[in-house]
Amino acid sequence: MEENHKALDLAKFKGIIQQESTRMNLRSYSIEGESSFTLALALSAAIKKIFFEKSETTFSSEPRIEKHPITQFVHRMRVDAMEKFNATTACATVHFAVNQEALDRREYLLMLVVYLEQRFLPEFLRLLQYPYIEFDNEAEVMDGCGTVANLIAGQYKREMIQLGYKDLMMSPFESYINAPPDGLAIPRGVEDKYEISFDVEGTKRLVVELVTLDMLPKWKTIEKAAPKRILIIDDDVTFIKIIEPFLKSQGFDVLTANNGAEGIKKLKSKPHLIVLDIQMPVMDGYEFILEKKKVQEVEHVPVIVLTAREGMSEMFKVEGAREYLLKPFQPNALLKSIQRCL
Fold first, then answer.
1. 96: which of 104, 223, 298, 310 lies 20 to 30 Å off by Cα?
2. Distance, CA of 308 to CA of 180 (rounded, Å)
3. How far is the C-alpha of 185 from the C-alpha of 182, rounded, in Å?
4. Any idea what the Cα angle at residue 82 is, between residues 80 and 84, rounded to 5°?
5. Distance from C-alpha of 272 to C-alpha of 334, rounded to nearest angstrom
6. By three-state DSSP, how is residue 21 classified?
7. Residue 106 in 3-state DSSP?
8. What is the pLDDT of residues 127-170, one digit of tens each?
């Protein structure tokens, strides 16, 4: 496990691909036109890296990677999550496309499906240092499974960039219990999927499916623009744990602060946008906005205000807030607000 946390060594990684392709007797592999199996191995590496960094527990064996035909109906993948564990199972999906417009048109290049047995999901979240949930609370279970899917998708996206693939746009997660009623939209023309199974303490606990086109867009040898920097100021640790990896997966550089006073200190990093909670200890959001006005370099940096209290939007807009979101909200709502501000 010692090497799992390091950035992927491309030459070594391709050697592993060649060996595994031969072992599994896979067709259509080539170094130049890397197959979907390459992407399956990268996904396995990304998940192992998450466990290495976040959990004191390691997987008890190497992940199993299997190729299966997709059961389709009208270009949608049939899903029966209970087949994975022979028990009630939560599943969550994340789609990838070349940009937001392609996502909106459902022109997908790649899809991940994450499966977790409902009874084990609270323990799995605990292993990843997330707050405890009740396994019999369906809303918490679906949100928890979606959180794991977001975490995996974000790490996978970063590993793909290491391998030279383009920075794809990632959709918000969608989650279900046992099966999505109408199946799942998949990239057109794809007939197979890769199923990757992970054991914890000798028992299968996590299954992730990859549905992808063989050829994904890669970067040309040009320098990419520096990512936009977002400063999140919020004392809600759970909120930060969900939103920070989500925004990083969308290509943003993210800084965090637990109150307004910490936020003022981090203004020297010159963020392009500030996401600001209102009710915080030490210095609340309203005081922060007043102090920010005194810092000339960031005086005009847009602010998105977050609050659980209704009826305050006009007051904060008067003070210079660009947008206003009422908690709770889905990560995608914040993403759209950020896109409007930037």
1. 223
2. 31
3. 9
4. 95
5. 15
6. helix
7. coil
8. 888 888 998 999 999 999 999 999 999 999 988 887 788 889 99
d(CA 71, CA 192): 9
Q: Please report, as a single letter, which amino acid is at residue 77.
A: M
The answer to whether 127 and 151 have CB atoms below 8 angstroms apart is: no
| Distance of alpha carbon 217 from alpha carbon 333, whole angstroms | 27
Token pair 């990093």 in the structure block, residue: 269
Q: What ranges make up the beta strands (E) of 36-83?
A: 64-69, 72-73, 76-77
pLDDT in tens, 241-283: 889 988 988 889 999 999 999 999 999 999 999 999 988 999 9
Place of tokens 């989500």: 246
Separation of first and last alpha carbons in the chain: 40
Domain 10-212 part of CATH 3.40.1550.10:
yes
Architecture of the 229-341 domain: 3-Layer(aba) Sandwich (3.40)
Q: Where along the chain do its domains lie?
A: 10-212, 229-341
**Structure tokens that stand for 264 in this block:** 């003022």
**Pair of tokens at residue 62:** 């190497």
**CB-CB contact of 248 with 254 (8 Å):** yes
**Which is it for the CA torsion 276, 280, 283, 284, positive or negative?**
positive
Question: What tokens appear for 157 in the block?
Answer: 């996206």
